[in-house]
Amino acid sequence: MDPFRALLAEYWPHIVFTVSTVAGTAAAIHAAMTKQDVRAAIGWVGVALLSPFFGALFYLVAGVNRIRRTQVAQERDATMLRYATVREAADVDVMPISGPQFASLKVLGDHVSQFPLLGGNKVEPLAGGDETYPAMIAAIRTARVTIAMQSYIFDNDRIGRELAQALIDAAKRGVQVRVLIDAVGAKYSRPPIMGVLTRGGVRVARFMTNPLGVWRMPYANLRSHRKILVVDNSIGFTGGMNVREAFVASLVGDRVNRDTHFRFEGPMVTQLLSVFAHDWDFTTREALSNDTWFPHGTHPASGATPVRCVASGPDRYIGSTHQMLLGALAVAQHHVRIQSPYFLPDLALVGALATAARRGVIVDIVIPGINNLKLVDYAMSAQLDQVMRTGCRVWRAGGAFDHSKLMTVDDAWSYTGSSNLDPRSLRLNFELDTEIYDPAVATWINQRIDGLIATGRRETLATLADQSFAKRLRNKIIWLASPYL
Fold it and tell me: Is the peptide bond before 191 cis (omega within 30 degrees of 0)?
């Protein structure tokens, strides 16, 4: 036996101990120095020190934010700022539209979002896939110059192939088409839709290629959860819907899942395209800032609604949606309605909800009666008492799973988009939401949420207590891992 092998044979326990200790200590130091949330810092330090080797490996995979800490992050921020300043806008007075209490919320948005609030927009709410996908396909078929589409999930199923064919047909008639799909979301169907699009002549890319190869990892961090479609920089779609036939009643019948999306016309469409162009540039290094994608001239007004995009993610804009939600709860005077499929607010949001309720504001929170993510649902159940004890009302929607993410304040202001009220959306994913100052849109959302309340069941402290001890213990144990769900 050569000396090196003899050394390993005799001292391998010491070597393993030393390497694991160094790795665990390094991971613990990195977590303590870089994490801004003290709970996350304590958790990761504990994992790294209590299980030095495997804890350090887990931290390397799931705990390191590779966006904010690299030179790539600086380039990403620079591209966002470049695209965000494509349009200048005059100041919009929201008080005559929504009420005086929203003037301060508009100022908050001016500081939190990289985009200005733009008037002159037309907003059309779309209920479910039966309204959304036909509207998207119709818009794609009218495209003459450009199409930009981004989605977390774009399934290779019947509706996915129909939408893909519309994109392919547009590319064949000379339209410049770009499609961006999240690398994890692309693996939700086999084979992925990317091959269909590529063979049809559509330029398609994957956002943040999965570092662990073939794993789907539904709980992976740093995903692009944004949903965007922009046609000729004049018609835009965004909201909560992925591309899946499960949302189309004509295809799946009574098993149909529900969701909400929005169609926009007007100046804010350029903001949607700016977010896409930024993400496409970051992913492919192809800049879309030329006159083909962003033609010169004032974008014509198509309506009267002030709208602004709020992009958030684990980069310069981390916490943007979190701050907007806190601001909205602070200015609420009468009624707050919230619908979220994954409701796991942090302590700051729980406190803001409690303060609003204790001020006399009616706070209604609607969550699914049937959830597609069981672990998240268990964690939600363990935390609901925190908002109930302060006067918030929680409702379980009846029927099939509802994926909508909606919020209204005082029947005049709405917040819609891709963000869930959970740690993943508020800190770990790239999300896109819109704030809309329009009583008509808020009324549409209110009617939708009120309908779910009318046909749902109220969750109370008594109903939570009626659960068996085993279920309550299970829920609390899973709730401990809620920052990582």
Answer: yes
Confidence class of residue 22 from pLDDT cuts 50, 70 and 90? confident
Q: Cα-atom radius of gyration of the chain, to the nearest Å? A: 23
Domain boundaries, the chain: 3-63, 71-103+116-305, 320-484
> What is the phi/psi pair of residue 38, to 5°?
-60, -35
Pairing of strands 235-239, 260-265: antiparallel
The yes or no reply on domain 320-484 and CATH 3.40.50.300 is no
Element containing residue 347 per DSSP (H, E): helix 347-358
- State whether residue 296 is helix, strand or coil: coil
DSSP state of 207: E
Task: Identify the CATH number of the domain defined by range 71-103+116-305.
Answer: 3.30.870.10
Tell me what pLDDT residue 289 has: 80
Give the span between the Cα atoms of 301 and 7, in whole angstroms: 77
Contact between residue 325 and residue 414 where contact means Cβ atoms under 8 Å apart? no
Q: In this structure, are residues 345 and 372 in contact, taking their beta carbons and an 8 Å threshold?
A: no
Q: Would the CATH topology of 71-103+116-305 be identical to that of 320-484? A: yes
Place of tokens 């098993």: 255
SS3 for 361?
coil
- The pTM assigned to this predicted structure is 0.85
Q: What CA–CA distance (Å, rounded) separates 370 from 424?
A: 20
Contact (Cβ atoms closer than 8 angstroms) between residue 376 and residue 346: no
pLDDT at residue 286, as a whole number: 93
pLDDT in tens, 435-455: 999 999 999 999 999 999 999
Q: How far apart are CA 416 and CA 405, in angstroms?
A: 6
Distance (Å) of CA 29 to CA 17, 23, 25, 390: 18, 10, 6, 38
The residue among 374, 370, 372 whose CA lies nearest residue 399 is 370
The amino acid present at 94, given as its one-letter code, is: V
Q: Which residue has the tokens 């929170």?
A: 365
Mapped onto helix, strand or coil, the DSSP state of residue 415 is strand
Distance CA 191, CA 334 (A): 49
Which of 252, 227, 230, 229 is closest to 242 using CA atoms? Answer: 227
SS3 call for 53: helix
pLDDT in tens, 33-79: 766 666 667 766 777 766 666 666 766 665 665 554 444 444 445 44
Mapping DSSP to helix (H, G, I), strand (E, B) and coil, where does residue 452 land?
Answer: helix
Q: Is 176 left (phi over 0), alpha (psi -120 to 50) or beta?
A: beta
Angle at 313 (CA atoms; ends 67, 115), nearest 5 degrees = 120
Alpha-helix residue ranges (DSSP H) falling in 143-226:
158-172, 194-199
- Helix (H, G, I), strand (E, B), or coil: what is residue 331? helix
